[in-house]
Amino acid sequence: MITIHELRRKYIEFFRARGHAEISGKSLIPENDPTVLFTTAGMHPLVPYLLGEPHPAGRRLTDYQKCIRTGDIDAVGDPSHLTLFEMLGNWSLGDYFKKEAIRWSYEFLTSPDYLGIDPEKLSVTVFAGEASIPRDSESAEIWRSVGIPDERIYFLPREDNWWGPAGETGPCGPDTEMFVDTGLPACGPDCKPGCHCGKYFEIWNDVFMQYNKTSAGAYEPLAHPCVDTGMGIERTVAMLQGKKSVYETEAFTPILAVLESITGKKYAAPDNDPEVDRSFRIVADHIRAATFILGDPKAVLPSNIGAGYVLRRLIRRAVRHGRKLGIDGIFLAKPARAVIDIYRSPYPELVENSARILDELEREEQKFLETLQKGEHEFEKMLPNLLRNPERIMSGRLAFRLYDTYGFPIELTEELAAEQGLVVDRAGFDEAFKKHQELSRAGSEQVFKGGLADHSEIATRYHSATHLLHKALRIVLGDHVAQKGSNITAERMRFDFSHPAPMTREQIAEVERIVNEQIARDLPVTMEMMPLEDAKASGAIALFGEKYEPIVKVYTMGDFSKEVCGGPHVARTGELGKFKIIKEQSSSAGVRRIYAVLE
Predict the structure, then answer these.
(1) Which residues, 6 or more positions from 512, have their beta carbon under 8 angstroms from its beta carbon?
(2) Residue 577: is its pLDDT beyond 70?
(3) How confident is the model at residue 547 (pLDDT cuts 50, 70, 90)?
(4) pLDDT at residue 444 is higher than 50
(5) CATH of region 4-243
(6) Nearest CA among 190, 127, 117, 191 for reference residue 164
(7) Which residues of the sequence carry a binding annotation for Zn(2+) (predicted)?
(8) Most confident stretch, 103-112, 307-316, 444-453
């Protein structure tokens, strides 16, 4: 019975024997790609090479790649959806094309030396073509040549057999997908590969990058067509082992065993409530994904924005479902250790960064448990009034207040309400949440354009202080320092900046001294509006990569700082209070992060 580690090894060995160089998988945090928060597919890090840039390892490549997809987080908990998964891939960068790719796929799938799948159980799909792009008859003919009969070759449309670019533009093309007949009965006369009834299991996907989609929406033939293939390790092994779910494979059984020992409950026991098994799966999936994110060389930490927000959501959802399983205290480090142990060989960075993984999990878990306690306390205060309501309904507005103010999950509010014989107006909550999302989106756009969504007095003070900090860092560390991001809450500011090494204690102290000196000088803060080019010519700092309007605001703080910014700001630096750096740490490669407060 093949395991996840054996499949990974067999695949790499197969393609190395056919002239492919094994390359290392890349970070979960994409480089130079603001369109996605995480690496979402095996081909993602290779897009520049698929577009024609030469790869130092050559034109035939193979690897395994860790990936995160966040669109299905709410679906995780069923037997198949995963947040983190591994992709096996092989690539031709303008070398071989459809014939070799398809024949090697067939050989790896059916050879007794590799996966040994019965050829009679294989069906394939190819692109049916559309107005501007021809039908992929070439791939169909190659499948016939290896022995797949016409009745098991299906021509399907774009939504099934077309691979779009990673972003709005880029390499793309038709694909051919391979399916194994699971032996389940057909769901009807139209049952075929791609149907969701379970009869056909997709095991592999060969993408033929023939075109480049331009910004105008045209499909131009690539000068050097490429091959990009992908096989998901977890799902493939589950099918080969005859398991009903990925959670029954060794990718998850050690994690679930730890959860069983903590809870005293059995996963997939015959008499289990389906919700119990769902919670087991959610905790196992989310802690596995969080461990990989925190263990990544370019790890992000839990936060309220971007990838850090996704990480926080995964951790907190795991904690919440741990509570549903009866776990009250801190527990995530134990299943995280099981994840590290499973993957210590293919992903040694998990072992190297284990201290950070376990520390951050415990810190975030503790923070969330405090949040839950505050929310439960606030609910108790609301309860007497709620019980006086003869309709026994808790308004959506009140439920949203618990969520917005305390981060208290609506599912827990519904749980507490049900224990008291109350019903939460979920439609009212959803409406309030939708308005909140719309405001958040508007706020994100505002911040992106150089403004500040939160115009409260403390947020304004922190935002103004980032200008002083930015200039002080350039004085102490050098002109290479550039702002790479910032995040402001009512409690602190976070400032990311380019710098290759940790700051020394003396450098941190000197930056603090300079900022506080400018605050003590009580400098006037003035604003002018001018064309962007004039602003830059005047010496104002503008963020690289930022999108500015033709006319911009330039904020000047006395004779010290001058930046293009959307505001708002204090009138004088003396309003800021005492500036204190509380932490300086790595954010990512070549980027440092400072947390600071105004006392």
Answers:
(1) 579, 580, 581
(2) yes
(3) very low
(4) no
(5) 3.30.930.10
(6) 127
(7) 463, 467, 565, 569
(8) 103-112
Closest to 202 in 3D by CA, of 181, 174, 228, 227:
181
What is residue 230's three-state secondary structure? strand
Residues 6+ apart with CB under 8 A from 271: none
Per-residue model confidence as pLDDT tens digits over 239-256 = 999 998 999 999 999 999
User: Shortest CA distance to 175 belongs to which of 158, 163, 159?
Assistant: 163
Instruction: Please give the Cα distance from 350 to 348 (Å, whole number).
Output: 5
- Is 569 assigned a ligand-binding role in the annotation? yes
The residue to which tokens 């308005």 are assigned: 435
Contact call for residues 485 and 475 (beta carbons, < 8 A): no
Distance CA 484, CA 317 (A): 29
Q: What three-state secondary structure class fits 258?
A: helix
Separation of alpha carbons 146 and 102, rounded Å? 9
The answer to whether 565 is a known ligand-binding residue is yes
Q: What SS3 class is residue 155?
A: strand
Query: Residues, the chain, total?
Result: 599
Residue of 235, 218, 215 whose CA lies nearest to 82:
235
Give the pair of three-digit tokens for residue 339. 């994840």
- Residue extent(s) of CATH 3.30.980.10 domains in the chain: 457-598
- Could you tell me whether strands 551-557 and 153-156 are parallel, antiparallel, or unpaired per DSSP bridges? unpaired
Residue type, 126: V
Q: Any idea which fold 457-598 has?
A: Threonyl-tRNA Synthetase; Chain A, domain 2 (3.30.980)
For residues 20-58, one letter each, b for 16 or more C-beta atoms within 10 angstroms of the residue's C-beta and e for the rest, the string is bbebebbbbbbeeeeebbbbbbbbbbbbebbbeeebebe
Residues of each domain in the chain carrying CATH 3.30.930.10: 4-243
Give the type of residue at 50.
L
- Band (456; pLDDT cuts 50, 70, 90): low
Separation between Cα atoms, residue 321 and residue 287, nearest integer Å: 11
Place of tokens 């994100």: 444
Report whether 55 belongs to an annotated binding site: no
Q: Is 463 annotated as a binding residue?
A: yes
Please check whether residue 214 is in contact with residue 145, taking contact to mean a CB–CB distance below 8 angstroms. no
41, 83 in Cβ contact below 8 A? Answer: no
The model's pLDDT over 478-492, given as tens digits with 9 standing for 90+, comes to 999 988 877 777 788
Omega of the bond prior to 568 within 30 degrees of 0, cis? yes
Residue type, 329: G
Can you give the pLDDT at residue 265? 97
